[in-house]
Amino acid sequence: MIQNVIDVVEFQTTSQSLFSKQTYYTIKGSDKQGNFEVQRRFKDFVALRNILVIQWPGCYVPSLPGKKLFNGNDVKTINDRKKFLHAFCQKLSQLPHLFQTEEVSQIFLRSKDEKIYKKLESIKSPSTQDLLEKYQTLFTDILNVEIDASTLKEIDNFADQVRNYSIKLKNIKKIIKDSVQSGRNYNNCLEEIIKTRLINFENLFVSSFVNSDASMLIFNRIKQELMETYQEKQVFNQNNIEILLDLIRLESKDCKIVLKQINDKINLENKVKSLENKIIELEKQLEKLNQGKVSFKNMIKQKSPEDSKKQVEQEISDIVKEIKQLTELIVLINKILALKERNRYENDKNQQFKEIMEILQQMELESIKIESQYWGYILNETNQLISKTQNQQQIECQTNME
Question: Which PROSITE patterns match (predicted)?
Answer without folding.
Answer: PX
